[in-house]
Amino acid sequence: EWNRRVIDVTGYTKEHVIGKDFLSFVLESCRAEAHRVLSDAFAGQSTPNFEVLVATTVKEPVTFLLSAAPHMSSAGNILGVICIGQDITHIKELEVKKSQFAATVTHELRSPLHGIIGLSDNLLAEIQEKGRMHRSMLMINNCARRLLDLVTNIMDLSSLVQSKRMKLSRDPVHIAKIIEEVIMLTTCAVDKAGHPV
């Protein structure tokens, strides 16, 4: 059923679309996928949750999240295809804004972190004695590097999730170095009252 909501969103009336190929309203970028889904439905196979971009007469193309299923007669014959879905254009726009915001925040975080790492590297090279000053500067350097790694990993994970290509890799972990850094951090740690932890 080409209902009132679809008319409001696309601008196409029921009379305008009846008798026409649904794929003619689908943008070329996702027409092949839509054709595959409809072909599967006519073959008796349902497809849940597939996205299509549909051209409109009133504004930019809209994104529909649809589920397609064969329309069966009482005798079990396939009469057509039923598509049920919702307009998710606003959600897709929010996802783009979220990605842009994350990219901006990441850039703004990376710049000062690179500066902190570079300055602390220089100071570490100038400090001759490996005493308290050297340990403190090493802690600053290590914390900045970990934060930079965290920011980079978050962005990488976000990109992987969006592209739907999750790929994991195994990297060696140096337990002794981690324990050494934990000991160094806790040695200099203090509580809110200024007492050693």
UniProtKB/TrEMBL annotation:
Domain PAC: 48-100
Coiled coil regions in record: none
Entries under InterPro entries matching the protein: HisK_dim/P_dom, HisK_dim/P_sf, PAS, PAS-assoc_C, PAS-like_dom_sf, PAS_fold
Gene Ontology cellular component list: plasma membrane
E.C. no: 2.7.13.3
Matches recorded under PROSITE patterns: PAC, PAS
Keyword Lipid metabolism: no
Domain PAS: 1-45
Sorted UniProt keywords: Kinase, Transferase
GO molecular function: histidine phosphotransfer kinase activity; phosphorelay sensor kinase activity
Catalytic activity: ATP + protein L-histidine = ADP + protein N-phospho-L-histidine
GO terms of biological process kind: regulation of DNA-templated transcription
SUPFAM superfamilies (UniProt xref): Homodimeric domain of signal transducing histidine kinase (SSF47384), PYP-like sensor domain (PAS domain) (SSF55785)
Protein name as annotated: histidine kinase
Organism for this UniProt entry: Alexandrium catenella (Red tide dinoflagellate)
